[in-house]
Amino acid sequence: MKNALSPEEWREGNQVPKGMSGYMEDVYVHYDDRHALAARCLFEQPFGFTREDVDDLRQISRQSEESWWLDDLSSLADRIENLLPPEEEG
Q: Is residue 11 part of a domain?
C-alpha cells in the first residue's frame, strides 16, 4: 500500500482535494482521492493516529510470543503509517 500523500503534498498544507471546492454538506470524493482525504481528515485530530501508535504496534509485535497475529499487527502498523505525514528530518 502506498502512502496517502507524497511529502510534497503534505508540505502543500490542508488544501481541498482536487475536484472539490468550498463547503459542501455532502462531499463526493473520487475513489482515487479517498486515501488522501482520510489522511488529511485524521491529521492532528485527537481521534487520529500518531507515529507513536505505529511505534507501539511495532514494539508489541517484536515482543510478542504469539506469532499467529504478528502479520496482522505489522499490517495495521503499515496502514496507519501510510496515513501519516513523513517524519521530519533532523
A: yes
Angle between helices 70-81 and 51-63 (to 10 degrees): 160
Phi, psi angles (nearest 5°) of residue 76: -60, -45
Domain that holds residue 53: 7-81
The label of the residue with cell 459542501 reads 24
Q: Is the confidence at residue 28, as pLDDT, over 80? A: no
What's this model's pTM, rounded to 2 decimal places? 0.67
58, pLDDT greater than 80 = yes
* pLDDT for residue 78 is more than 90: yes
What CA–CA distance (Å, rounded) separates 56 from 20? 35
CB 61 within 8 A of CB 70: yes
Counted domains in the chain = 1
